[in-house]
Amino acid sequence: MESAKHAGDAAVAVSKAYGVETMFTLSGGHVFPLYDGAQHEGMRILDVRHEQSAVFAAEATARLTRKPGLAVLTAGPGITNGVSGVATAHFNGSPVVVMGGRAPQSRWGSGALQEMDHPPLLTPITKLAFTSSGADSVGQDVEMAFRTAVAPHRGPVFLDFHMDHLFSPSPMHEPQTQSPSPLEPDPDSLRAIARLLAEAERPVLVYGSDVWMDRAEEAARDFAEAWRLPVIPNGQGRGVLPAGHELLVTRARGQAFAQADLVIVMGTPLDFRLGYGWFGGKDGAPLAKVVHIADAPSHLATHMSPVASAAGDLSVVLWSLGDACGEVGVKPSRYADWLSTLADHAAAAVAGDAALLAADTDPIHPMRIYGELGKLLADDAVVIGDGGDFVSYAGKYVEPRRPGNWLDPGPYGCLGTGLGYAIAARLARPSSQVVLLLGDGAAGFSLMDVDTLVRHRLPVVMICGNNGIWGLEKHPMQLLYGYDVAAELQPQCRYDQVVTALGGGGELVTKPSEIGPALRRAFDSGIPYLVNIATDPQIAYPRNTTGV
Q1: DSSP character for 447?
Q2: pTM of model > 0.85
Q3: How far apart, in whole angstroms, are the C-alpha atoms of residue 239 and residue 432?
């Protein structure tokens, strides 16, 4: 059997076979052979300033390219610094492999530098967390990690290597990378769902991130159009129906969920973002019947009992469900008036927001920023949200025109994802606009990684909604207690000067009329550029859930 130079070569060769093109990392001696392997195998190494950004970049790569992402972290604090990124990938179902260094086996138990047993820490937030058994098994162990990460339901896998094993000779391993056969849904379950749709008068279809991750976006659009179903997207389901599509009723979300008699949720958990799966029951309406569809049985809701459920490859589910709808005689004319009502509500909401999207108030209303940004976004723009109140507006006023062009932290709600996501987006979509929306609180978690953007020549437009407070905490505390603590930040803090000092560009905006020109300068700059916009701290996003 052909021998590799060392085990790092074997690990990287298998990673490349699974489609990995970039290794995200922060330098550490425990993992030098993996870097050496990347040099031998022609894999790009992109080094960041904090390990969290390496994992976030790997996760965003997986979510944008639908290929597994790879992060390499050194032992001990390198791995603990990456835990929030792994947890985010876990909640998002992102196929990420995190490879870690580990103190030498020959010194284990003696108190070597950064000696720590990592897998028990990572086990609760991964599909699999384990230590490679030796240099001879590295190739097989890496294949197991990738094969597990990409299998439905996707998710992160952690694998660490003893340092002395990585430096040792290792046999090359030829991985079996063929995709598994699609999971077929139960036909009886699909017929039951079709019968529910045939009986419904006010149905709503919710598309979540797994519709995109399962490569089912075309089937999803075809199904909605064939049966004339109103659609509300969730997470990376945004863009499956492009902005302006007649079936897209995002702006009538409240009315739709309050009055629906049937809600079919596909490719996303029934979590706090969807009222934990409780719909209807408003203004005298009965509770809606709920159907949950997932890419794997393990991801179906267990905290409540849907009237029907199905699991399988989501494209196959949609094609087969369409056939079942034809067999049972689903008639879209039955709910045509409902679709028209929702479209009218959506149009009224859009019209009602026009004034604030163009507001000339001083201080700046955050909605004015989105009014100006909407004029400049290209059809293929990748928009990334990292923040609380400020980014909540993006969820309402930035409607992607294509699938796969929206990234937010997902249900785990971890701040600090933004710079890692932006790094990955620029690599994955080199010709697209990449726009990172930051709250000023979120900026404090990862802004140092602008240095990474500069060093690797990755231009990104960053927009910071700077209201000088922790908005998600200050306003609720005032409501609960009549006062607030630990909720103040520096008013008009010069985050733009931080970016400039790190080699990018930026400016502070304090007047509404300055927003549009500043954004145009940012897009035209060709460098990492932050537009730091001072917004009104008295304005809170009008939310109806706290996520609790």
Answers
A1: G
A2: yes
A3: 15
